[in-house]
Amino acid sequence: MNKYNYIFAGAGLSSLMTVYEMIQSGLFLHQKILLIDADCKKTNDRTWSFWEKKYGEWDDIVSHKYETAFFKNKNFNRKLDLQPYHYKTVCGIDFYTKVFDAIRQNPNIEFLNASIHKVEEYNEGVQVITNIGNFHAEKVFNSIYNPTIVASQTQFPLVQQHFIGWFIQTTEAVFTPETATFMDFSVNQKGNTRFMYVLPTSETEALIEYTLFSPILLKKEEYETEIENYIQGLGISTYQIIEKEAGNIPMTCYPFWKHNTKNILHIGSAGGWTKASTGFTFKNTIQKSKAVVRFVQTQSDFRKFHKKDKFWWYDLLLIDILFYRNEIGSSIFSAMFKKSKAALIYKFLDEETTFWEDLKVIWQCPKRPFLKAVFCRIFANKSL
Question: What is the pTM of this model?
Answer without folding.
Answer: 0.92
